[in-house]
């Protein structure tokens, strides 16, 4: 996952205190469950699509086991070749859950930095770039903006249960990228109508609903490419240079 989950309360509603020695394993189990849920949501969507044959996840797991492959990023051509040897696949699909209820601090820091930059530029133009005024403003912004941005980011995660997933598809022969997309979903109150009144209060239920929507959007985006075996074979052919004719004048 892109975002680091260190507390179980980030992804689940916790009503009782957790033994500190047990929480790390519970967090690891929760993260594994999120990853598995994400890929199964996409898998089942592709499995019912016409003209698409998906390889059973159990076969994929067996092919990956012992290879040391990590789907945190796109695979190299040799890594794709390793998978193709055991699976004979035309496309290798990977993905990563970047945000899941908890917003990555890099995004918040980037937003705060942009805010400080614009204010410093405006102040610099107004004061003929007086260093005391500019650095004074930076110090003031660090004191006042940090709790606003990072506290606001925390509240944003609590209120909207954001989920962001990146996914990509690589050619099963060449390893070249054939598709990539990102899905971002925030809690829409109408989506909560799918669950009971009691379940709406649970953080994990809200996150699952958003994850389900994100994977649905990615599945539709991938299927819109209308990949076929013949189309992929065409893309693998080397591009022939256009014929040219010219004459030289002396």
Could you give a quick summary of the protein structure above?
The chain is mainly alpha-helical. It is built from seven helices and three strands, in the order αααβααββαα.
In terms of structural class, how would the helical and strand content be classed?
Answer: mainly alpha
Q: Globular, elongated, flat, extended or rod-shaped: what is the shape?
A: globular
* pLDDT < 50 stretches: 105-116, 137-159, 244-250
- What fraction of the residues are assigned to beta strands by DSSP? 5-15%
Provide the number of structural domains: 2
| Number of beta strands | 3
The termini sit apart by 65 Å
Strand arrangement within the widest β-sheet reads: 1-2-3
Level of helix content?
40-55%
Averaged pLDDT = 75
Q: Give the SSE string.
A: HHHEHHEEHH
**What's the Cα radius of gyration?**
24 Å
Total helical elements:
7
Largest sheet: 3 strands, antiparallel
Q: Explain this structure to me?
A:
By secondary structure, this protein is mainly α. It folds into two domains: 1-100 and 164-185 and 196-228, no CATH class; 102-160, no CATH class. The protein is built from seven helices and three strands; from the N terminus they run αααβααββαα. The chain has helices spanning 23-47, 57-64, 77-87, 105-126, 131-160, 203-223, 229-236, and strands at residues 91-100, 163-171, 177-185. A three-stranded antiparallel β-sheet has the order 1-2-3. Strand 2 and strand 3 form a beta hairpin. Helix 1 runs parallel beside helix 6 (203-223). The termini are far apart. The model is unreliable at 105-116, 137-159 and 244-250 (pLDDT under 50).
């Amino acid at each position: 996952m892109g975002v680091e989950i260190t507390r179980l309360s980030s992804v689940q509603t916790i009503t009782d205190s957790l033994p500190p020695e047990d929480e790390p394993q519970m967090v690891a189990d929760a993260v594994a469950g999120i990853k598995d849920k994400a890929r199964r949501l996409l898998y089942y969507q592709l499995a019912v699509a016409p003209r698409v044959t998906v390889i059973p996840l159990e076969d994929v797991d067996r092919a990956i086991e012992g290879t040391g492959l990590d789907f945190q990023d796109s695979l190299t051509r040799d890594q794709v070749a390793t998978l193709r040897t055991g699976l004979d696949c035309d496309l290798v699909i990977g993905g990563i859950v970047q945000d899941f209820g908890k917003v990555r601090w890099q995004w918040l820091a980037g937003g705060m930095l942009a805010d400080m930059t614009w204010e410093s530029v405006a102040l610099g133009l107004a004061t003929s770039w007086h260093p005391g005024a500019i650095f004074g403003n930076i110090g003031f912004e660090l004191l006042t903006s940090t709790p606003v941005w990072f506290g606001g980011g925390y509240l944003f995660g609590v209120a909207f249960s954001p989920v962001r997933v990146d996914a990509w598809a690589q050619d099963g022969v060449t390893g070249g990228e054939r598709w990539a997309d990102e899905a971002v979903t925030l809690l829409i109150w109408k989506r909560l109508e799918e669950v009971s009144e009691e379940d709406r209060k649970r953080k994990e239920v809200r996150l699952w609903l958003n994850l389900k929507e994100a994977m649905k959007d990615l599945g539709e985006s991938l299927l819109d490419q209308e990949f076929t075996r013949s189309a992929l074979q065409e893309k693998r052919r080397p591009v022939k240079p256009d014929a040219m004719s010219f004459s030289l004048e002396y």
